[in-house]
Amino acid sequence: MVCLGITSLWPERISPSAARNAAVSQGMNAIGPVDCRNTRCIALTFDAGPGKDTPRLLNLLNKEEVPATFFLLGKEHVDRYPGTVQRMAAEGHEVANHTWSHRILTELDADGIRRELSRAQNAIEKLTGRKPSLMRPPQGRTNEEVSRISRELGLAQVLWSATAKDYSTTDSALITRRILDAADRDGIILLHDIYDGTVSAVPGIIMELKARGYTFVTVSQLLAPAVPEPGNVYKP
Q1: Exposure winner among 76, 106, 202, 230, fewest CB in 10 A?
Q2: Which structural domain, as residue segments, surrounds residue 115?
Q3: pTM of the shown model
């Protein structure tokens, strides 16, 4: 479940600020609870779960009143922890798609891409009553065909601006430091709630970023008043 941040060159990547500005220019003004045009917003996201430590993470997020976006992996995760998926949705977190089995989408044909995404979509909808509108391609790898199938399935693609490479270490202090060093306004933080050391790093990340004046939002809240457009690639 490693996210290396390797993307193809041709799908255009849209920053949150560009998405917001374009929406405002088109007369869209439905901001929601936080206006990230005037607030130092940052989005906390978790990939490839849920896992055994996710309930502890949800307890922490609830205590700190921090919303997060969870890009869920269908095979052996959504099916294994259905109650955790339902809890995420019930507690107001954004539930998103990270494919069924973490296949690299750019290595698949159209049917393979569609199968990876739609199986996860259906599994998540079955548990939450709602199909995701966001997906994160494994390892951030996307291309024109992935974008086309994502558009067909109603999925916008979300990349990231800060990662701790927590798949390579169990050192919670190191994970915290890497995220804090890379954090910036309109950032999208990538972590994994399936690796040892990650959940224990989250309290320090939240505490320090709050002290720096950041407000935590979901990815969709970060883009508002823009509505994530299926097929588009969003990256700070």
Answers
A1: 76
A2: 13-234
A3: 0.94
